[in-house]
Amino acid sequence: MNNLAVRTETLVPLGLSPLLTTTHLMAYYGVSDWTVNNWVKRGLPVEPTASRGRRFDLAACQEWHRMHAV
Prior knowledge:
By secondary structure, the protein is mainly alpha-helical. Helices cover 51% and strands 6% of the residues. It has helices at 3-11, 22-29, 33-41, 58-67; strands at 19-20, 56-57. It has a two-stranded antiparallel ribbon with strand order 1-2. The longest helix has 10 residues, at 58-67. It starts with a helix and ends with a helix.
């Protein structure tokens, strides 16, 4: 498990769910930017932000992956 995953797992029991950047999501799942963009096109939930960047709720992403597992 990578460092981001370990830090995230310690926050979740505290009731905190951090919003991840695309780079964080890539690191968490071990995938490329292309894959994350593909997931977004297929319906991966993206949290609204005031800036141009995308943010992802890890719990929502995990649920989306669970529902769309092949």
